[in-house]
Amino acid sequence: MKPGSTVWARNVIAGVVLTAGPLALAACSGRDVGPEQQVDASGLVQISPNGGGSVDPSLPVVVTAQHGGRLTDVTVVSDTGRQVAGQLAADGRSWRSTGALAAGTHYTVKVAAADGGGDGRGGVQKSFTTLAATSTLTAVMTPGDKGVYGVGEPITVALSQPVHDPAARKIVETALTVRSTPSVTGAWYWVDDKTLHFRPKDYWPAHAVIQAAFDLGGAKVQSGLYGGAPASVAFRTGDRMLALTDAGSDYMTVYRNGQEIRSIPITTGKPGFSTRNGIKVVLEQEQEVFMNSSTVGIAAGSSNSYALDVYWATRVTWSGEYVHAAPWSVGSQGVANVSHGCTGMSTGNAEWFYDTFHRGDLVQVVHSLGHEMEPFGNGYGDWNLSWSAWQQGSALGRTVTTSPADPAAVTGGGAGASGTALTTSVGYLRPSA
């Protein structure tokens, strides 16, 4: 390539900007490119922080043109390749970082500048290292096994450190992203100082692909606390399964994607042990569970005590509410409520329910004399909050419209592979807005 050509001159400048240390650029020959003399840019710009180590990561990076010069390009990048966002002033005289610096990270600042008369251009590069964090914030997210879940499964985030300050919570929430195909509108909800849940306005679509991630990029969250290692999860949804449990009629109606597929005679909680009303989400399943009434405060030997093996048990609350086989109460099923709060059915129906329902599927109880399902703390009662109430739990006060997910993020077959479309609506599905 001929010296003096426009391309040659620009490549020399770009190449030198990537070289370590202050740069003195050799003069270009040839006036066909205009009056562009290469100059020592170290005299044209001032960079703060001024290199070295032990830099406070809460400080911004500021680059200023000197002697009437102007900045033509500024890049601040970590050794891992993460670029720090920044804003160039309208007059080109200064640049300031708008993105946060990470703790314990080495950065390189690369600057291209022109002198005040527009007759010279040059580049300069400096490096610095931020102070290491005294404490880092990480997260454990669920569901994280790339499996197939019901449409009621929320995304949960368990933080390693409590975050109470509203401004710090906004920083945390900004670092959370959700993607899904199809797209949904949802929101994050701060359950407590260490726990967040994400749910859509309505249930997840059937056969959706969902991804979520938490990445603070090492940014400062609050005094002494910085972002740690990122986390991410991916999963799919299967058919929309709903078990509408009517404690008034003592029948359960099961719907798949809005269509009734089975009606099951049941018994729910008797007076004093009434089953909770509301929407619950399947938490786990066990073929056999030993149930002892003393663990829920019923004295051994009393008229309400029990200690027995229960089969085909589908848990819907952490306090011990299940859908399970109750062969001892078959005569009351479809007739009366005689349980201690669980939903009992015949062994055959319970086995069918166990095989048909999975974690994240919906169990809704209506017309019970019991109190309402708690939104949090006893399972996933997230859907018992109205959408307007749910939005109030966001530190940012905003909803999230998800961008498309990557189908390759999840693997495997199962319930999420068929792509069955929703058909009809079902009553008692969710609280009013």
What does this structure look like?
- Helix content is 8%, strand content 36%.
- By secondary structure, it is mostly beta strands.
- The protein starts with 5 loop residues before the first helix and ends in a 32-residue tail after the last strand.
- Strands 1, 3, 5, 8 and 9 form a five-stranded mixed sheet that branches. The chain has a five-stranded antiparallel sheet with strand order 11-13-16-15-30, with no helix packed on it.
**How many beta strands in the DSSP annotation?**
30
Helix/strand/pairing class, anyone?
mainly beta
Q: How many DSSP helices?
A: 4
pLDDT < 50 stretches: 1-36, 413-433
Instruction: Characterize the main sheet.
Output: 5 strands, mixed
Helix content: under 10%
Radius of gyration: 31 Å
Fold-level CATH name of the largest domain? L,D-transpeptidase catalytic domain-like
Distance between the termini: 68 Å
Architecture of the largest domain in CATH? Beta Barrel
- Beta-strand percentage range: 35-45%
- The shape is elongated
Q: Tell me, what is the CATH class of the largest domain?
A: Mainly Beta
